[in-house]
Amino acid sequence: MDKAKEQHNNILLAVGGFSAVVVIVALIGFLALGRDPEVIQGEMEVEEYRVSSKVPGRILELRVKEGDMVKAGDTLAILEAPEVKAKMMQAQNAADAAAAMEQMAKNGARKEMIQSAFQLLQQAKAGFEVAEKSYNRIKRLYDDGVVSAQKYDETEAMYKSAQAQVKAAQSQYDMAVSGARLEERQAASATAGQARGAVQEVTSYINETVQIAQMAGEVSDVYPKVGELVGTGSPIMTISVMDDTWATFNIREDQLKGLAVGTEITVNVPALDKDMKMKVYHMKDKGSFAAWKATKASGQYDQKTFEVKARPAEKLEGVRPGMSVILKK
User: I need a labelling partner for 7 at 20 to 30 A (CA). Which of 17, 25, 85, 257 fits?
Assistant: First the structure.
């Protein structure tokens, strides 16, 4: 009996000792190795802009292809838009006509018209002198009672008519010399300005038939083929601005410890097997639709996902948009 009890105790001691050894080894391993770091995967992105035209047209020529590097001012594509050229001809003709009318209003009457008006004025003055002499002569005779009142009235009417003719001829001559009225000149000038504005508008449309690069970058996509029609605002190609890249991470809020705007982080680029330093510049929650829901009824809480963006603090050759970047915490 005692022997069986002693054997039982020995077994318990052996089991307890083994358990203690396992716990101690586990603690040593946990303390020595620690837990595996959390891996957060992000993706490199790049700023892009689309090249499009304000006017519809047919692709006449594509000067670049996908993968080409372009500089600001490089010609990318040429469109054919005959309708715009026709509008330019109409606008130019209208502008020429308006300019001629404006010049005519500024120059006034022609020399021949001025000379003609002067001759009419001289003729009217000569007739007035004769009428004035006749009137004075008849008036003296009328005062002396030699001529009748009817004769005097007729002579006075002729005198006043000649006087009016002089005034009318003088006005015609003055108008011919001074040219168009101020209001007419202003109206002609405004019409000419409007026509010039129409030419400038159509010129801007013609310039849109030659698409140039606004910023340096890489041609990432070309949509139409040569000969295809493109509508107003339809994208012709996409340019990636390779100097403006960043990485985007989606991180749960319980993993944000140590991250803030301005924080410098080190990430690994698996495609290049190289590390890269980056600086956080943007943090924003992605809304309730991106929340991580609790898996237990108690002791847990909903955790939102934050969008974290970081720009390279130093340039790493070979990094391209779409490459994965790994952040270990």
Answer: 25
* H or E segment and range at residue 4: helix 2-33
Q: Pick from 219, 255, 269: which is nearest to 240 by CA?
A: 219
Between CA 161 and CA 168 the distance in angstroms is 11
**CA torsion sign, 309 to 311 to 317 to 320?**
positive
The string over 51-82, giving b where at least 16 C-beta atoms fall within 10 Å of a residue's C-beta and e elsewhere, is bbbebebebeebebeeeeebeeeeebbebebe
Q: Is the pLDDT of residue 291 over 80?
A: no
Q: Can you tell me the distance from the alpha carbon of 175 to that of 113, in angstroms, rounded to the nearest whole number? A: 10
Q: What residue has token string 């008006």? A: 117
The lowest-confidence range among 85-94, 95-104, 158-167 is 95-104
Please write the tens of the pLDDT for every residue from 192-232: 788 888 888 888 888 888 999 999 999 999 999 999 999 88
Q: Which of these, 245, 255, 253, 242, lies nearest to 327 by C-alpha position?
A: 255
Find tokens 């500089």 and name the residue: 71
